[in-house]
């Protein structure tokens, strides 16, 4: 009886390259040659990269506004109110996970736009609440 076991074959690594650059970054990098969320998008084009950054900024701001919605009291029945809040929470989580996946591209521009978008959205929500509270006092 032989105890010689065949050695397993090593797993092949993805061989995708874009302009000689590997698409699987594991460290932060700067540049427009990035793949976010979908294959071939933004495809290394500067205009599409800028559009992607703007979209991520707007989505990050929207996530902060949706977080504020959960604090809003509705006058509807408890079931309708619960369904509305659960729907908004589900949308917020879906958007947050998409933003997280985009950040996992390790592109510095993506990371900066998302952080600034969240901060700007948080500022707008708190500023609006402060103005509303100030009007209630007058």
Structure summarized in a few sentences:
The protein is mostly helical and 138 residues long. It contains 3 helices and 2 strands; from the N terminus they run E-E-H-H-H.
Fold and architecture overview:
There is one protein chain. The protein is mainly alpha-helical and 138 residues long. It has three helices and two strands, in the order E-E-H-H-H. The chain has helices spanning 46-69, 78-103, 108-137; strands at 17-18, 21-22. Strands 1-2 form a two-stranded antiparallel sheet. Strand 1 (17-18) and strand 2 form a beta hairpin. Helix 1 (46-69) runs antiparallel to helix 2 (78-103). It is extended, with a radius of gyration of 22 Å. The model is unreliable at 11-15 (pLDDT under 50).
How are the elements arranged and paired?
Blueprint: E1 17-18, E2 21-22, H1 46-69, H2 78-103, H3 108-137
Antiparallel strand pairs: 1-2
Helix pairs in contact: 1-2, 1-3
Entry keywords:
138 residues; mainly alpha; two-stranded antiparallel ribbon; 3 helices; 58% helix; 3% strand; extended
Structural class: mainly alpha
Q: Spell the H/E element sequence.
A: EEHHH
Strand content: under 5%
* Residue-averaged pLDDT: 82
Give Rg in angstroms: 22 Å
Helix content: 55-70%
């Amino acid at each position: 009886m032989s105890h010689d076991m065949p050695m397993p074959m090593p797993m092949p690594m993805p061989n995708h390259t874009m302009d000689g650059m590997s698409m699987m970054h594991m460290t932060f990098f700067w540049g427009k040659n990035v793949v976010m969320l979908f294959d071939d998008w933004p495809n290394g084009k500067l205009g599409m990269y800028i559009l992607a950054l703007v979209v991520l900024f707007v989505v990050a701001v929207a996530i902060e506004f949706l977080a504020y919605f959960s604090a809003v009291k509705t006058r509807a029945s408890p079931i309708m109110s619960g369904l509305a809040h659960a729907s908004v929470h589900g949308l917020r989580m879906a958007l947050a996970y998409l933003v997280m996946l985009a950040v996992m591209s390790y592109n510095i521009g993506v990371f900066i736009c998302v952080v600034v978008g969240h901060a700007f959205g948080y500022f707008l929500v708190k500023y609006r609440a402060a103005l509303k509270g100030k009007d209630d006092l007058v």
